[in-house]
Amino acid sequence: MNQTLARKAGLVSRRGGFVLALALTAAGHAAPTTAADSIAVSVDPSKAGPKIDRNLFGQFAEHLGHGVYEGVWVGPDSAIPNTRGIRNDVVAALRALKVPNVRWPGGCFADEYHWRKGVSPQRAVTLNPNWGGVTEPNAFGTHEFMDFMAQIGSEAYVSVNVGSGTPQEAAEWLEYLTAAQPTTLAKERAANGHPAPYKVAYLGIGNESWDCGGNMTPEHYLSQLKAYSRFVRNFNPAQQPDPQRMLKIAVGPGGDGPRWTEWTDTVMKAWQGRSWSWDFDGLSMHNYTVVKWPPSYKSTGFGEAEYAQILESTLEMDRLIATHSAIMDKYDPQKKVALVVDEWGAWYAPLSGSNPGFLVQQNSLRDAVLAALNVNIFARHADRVRMANIAQMVNVLQAMILTDEEKMVLTPTYHVFKMYVPFQDATFVPVSFDAGTYTHGNVTLPRLDAIAARDTAGKLWLAVTNLDPDRSAAVEATLAGITPKSAAGETLTAPRVDSVNTFEAPDTVVPKPIVARVQGATLALTLEPKSVTVISVEQ
Ligand code: AHR
User: Best of 60, 68, 102, 108 to mutate for ligand 1, by most ligand atoms within 8 A of CB?
Assistant: First the structure.
């Protein structure tokens, strides 16, 4: 941030020096100053870690509630501004996130999806038994999804139907999508408006095949996986060598405990003994922050107890990744197979008055903190975790965006994803700090979390989350071997842990500028309580 911008934001003193304006809350009130004891953070940019794959910031769009219909697709005849039926406001918001990939069409929906119903000029109306039993118009099908990918500048992660489909059905879908030669299916694609082959970057072979995807044993799933892996190809020769190659993702674990470790062990052991005729590149893992089933925590109108309990639960992600990574290491010490956390996020009780099958929830400052903590965990495991998809993109679960007819609002989680854009494909840089503790009732959490990275242009970035909702945190960051000239960025907080953005008040939880004080080789920052901060360093 330059001095003019900083002055506008009220961050520059009359004498021109940077002030600790960060001790102001988002609402402009003085933050509690009592316990701003200093926390030392050491960043060592000389020690480069793994790449933080941009795919860690992937999204998930299932045919579920208003996630696709209304959230993305309004149809070309809608009064809501759209391009070929896809809403322009949502596209613009997602473009700003540089969404690397979108998983579609499910979820549980994928294992009941039959692609042919969504490509012909006359679309079949079917049912969506998983999600409210509503009708599925199939108006948003293959071409509409690929158009959506082109409009937001993202890659397709297509989940094929293993539960109620066949390898033949899935292979024909991929031929329809990717064949460059004039096969009958490629000609049908051309007749339906797209002569050029599409690119499918990622292929999901089933979804939760241990449960909604067919309740299979790991052995039964493996026999399916081998057939799908062999026959469901990218048929375009130009997209077969690296780095164009379509990556295949197998169904992996859905949680903690022997059932899931056995699943990972069985599938990875088979992978180690694979033959030339089948393979996969990623193992999926699903883990929601829910505390207990059925989801009963409220997404708004909650207090500090629920804030602390949900964050405690979300931090379990680290142990889960470590557990399954350790099993993968046994069979794949070179880490060729990625752990793909392709469903994660908070799952709360449905909003009152909404269809419970539509998984509608609000999104609060707590979710912003939760998102930052999870992304930090993924980054710390970036050597193994190379893809993740938050559930879900629009109007469902921990969404980026909420819509209501022509209205749209960006959620606190959206803002965290936007603040973290510079971490996409950045190189992990080790950070050490004494996190301290934040305690509420019988929950004790780290008070602070932080990651650092160098972006593709070489700039250093630091992301720091202050979990404590009551105490600001004075951070003193030293950057080994670097004398910073300045450091600035954005910070996200709000008056309450359950503050939300609404259509009427969309700016309650939005990022504000923040500037660090440079003290020799040290950067000094005062982080507001319950805040997420991302800064870059000029050197
Ligand atoms: O995201 C909602 C559902 O959660 C998905 O359809 C399913 O895969 C998971 O159980």
Answer: 108
In the annotation, is 208 catalytic?
yes
* Residue 11, both tokens: 């961050």
For 373-401, the pLDDT digits (tens) are 999 999 999 999 999 999 999 999 999 99
Q: What is the CA radius of gyration of the chain?
A: 23
- The verdict on whether 62 is a catalytic residue reads no
Residue 391 CA to residue 107 CA, distance in Å, equals 10
Q: How far apart are the C-alpha atoms of 459 and 246, rounded to whole Å?
A: 31
HSE-up of 296 (CA within 13 Å, CB side)?
4
Q: Would you state the structure tokens that stand for residue 512, as one six-digit string? A: 């504000």
Please state whether beta strands 58-60 and 401-404 pair in parallel, antiparallel, or not at all (unpaired).
Answer: unpaired
Residue nearest (by alpha carbon) to ligand 1 atom 6 = 107
DSSP-derived 3-state class of residue 76: coil
pLDDT above 60 (res 32): no
Helices (H) and strands (E) in the chain, counts: 11, 28
Q: Which atom of ligand 1 is nearest to the CA of 254?
A: 10
> What distance in Å separates the CA atoms of residue 369 and residue 237, rounded to the nearest whole number?
44
300's tokens: 């708004």
Q: How far, in Å, from the CA of 217 to the mean position of ligand 1? A: 19
Find tokens 């004790």 and name the residue: 444
Token pair belonging to 454: 């160098």
Atom of ligand 1 nearest to the CA of 391: 1
Task: Identify the CA nearest to 163 among candidates 118, 225, 101.
Answer: 225
> pLDDT tens, 204-248?
999 999 999 999 999 999 999 999 999 999 999 898 888 889 999
DSSP notation for 286-354: EEEE-SSSSP-S-SSS--HHHHHHHHHHHTHHHHHHHHHHHHHHHH-TT--SEEEEEEEEE--PPPTTS
Tokens encoding 26: 């988002």
Q: 282 with 249: CB under 8 angstroms?
A: yes
**Closest ligand 1 atom to Cα of 211:** 10
Distances (CA, A) of 154 to 76, 94, 98, 103, 497: 21, 9, 7, 10, 32
> Residues with beta carbon inside 6 Å of ligand 1?
62, 106-108, 207-208, 212, 343, 391-392, 397
User: How far is ligand 1, taken at its centre, from the CA of residue 343, in Å?
Assistant: 7
Instruction: Say how many residues make up the chain.
Output: 539
Q: Which of 172, 208, 306, 490 is catalytic?
A: 208
What DSSP character marks residue 492? E
In this structure, which residue's CA is closest to atom 4 in ligand 1? 107
Check if the beta carbon of residue 85 is closer than 8 Å to that of residue 78: yes
Alpha carbons 396 and 205: distance in angstroms, whole number: 23
Task: Using the atom order of ligand 1, give the atom closest to the CA of residue 288.
Answer: 4
Nearest to 479 by CA among 449, 446, 453: 453
What pLDDT, on a 0 to 100 scale, did the predictor assign at position 452?
98
Residue type, position 226, single letter: K
